[in-house]
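Hi everyone, sorry if this is the wrong subforum. Our group has a chain we'd like a structural model of before ordering constructs, and none of us has done structure prediction before. Sequence below.
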Amino acid sequence: MEQGRTREEARPPYASVASVTAHPSARVPEQARGEHTHSEPPAPRVVVRRHSVRGQILDALRAALADGELVPGRVYSAPALGARFGVSATPVREAMQQLAVEGAVEVVPNRGFRIVERGPRELAELAEVRALIEVPVMLRLARTVPPTGWCALRPLADATVAAAAGGDRASYAEADRAFHGAVLALSGNAQLVTVADDLHRRSQWPLMAGPVTRRADLPADAAEHTALLDALIAQDVAVVQSLVRAHFTGIGV
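Answer:
Right subforum, don't worry. Here is the predicted structure as tokens:
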């Protein structure tokens, strides 16, 4: 995170969100009573397709969390965020309420939403829980899934490598989750996939001192996916066990 940034508008966030496109005629969102935005200058107006506004805003906010654009400890108002997306405050509030359920933000009455501050201990605890859930499943799958089943996951592993090479933490976070989700989906347990995905998403949120993973770390994390997939295809359980346990000892993976 850049030093010296003390205001929310230090640099325009969310520029990498593909679902939001520039539009000169987008309307200015309404001001919600009790949410103060006088210190937040308007950003370039954008427009979002109306049929899936809430979902697109939720995806954009999740990406901003993973990329560190939403700063831990800072309060953001729904009208100000809506202005940046060119939508009303309502879908922003709805998306933020979902993030509150997920534990990423907390409601601040009459002000907006504060990004939850997390420390290294919480991150370590999440990694431990993920390992308890995912490692035994991956080891079982390593013994039962044929090589052809693992080969189908090669494009997902390659996607993490491509995202890492681009240095985009938000894109990498999505590619990372997609790979892990696809691996666990081979178990046939939908509840497992849902629980693991929630834990994985939580582990990608930024720490108090800055983003969880530096851009320079991403290629090494992505390489672990490729090595793990190679071991799974080879049905080398010993190597799979070593790789997957090491994978969960790092942060931001």
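For your construct planning: The CA atoms of residues 122 and 203 lie 9 Å apart. The chain is about 55% helix and 5% strand.
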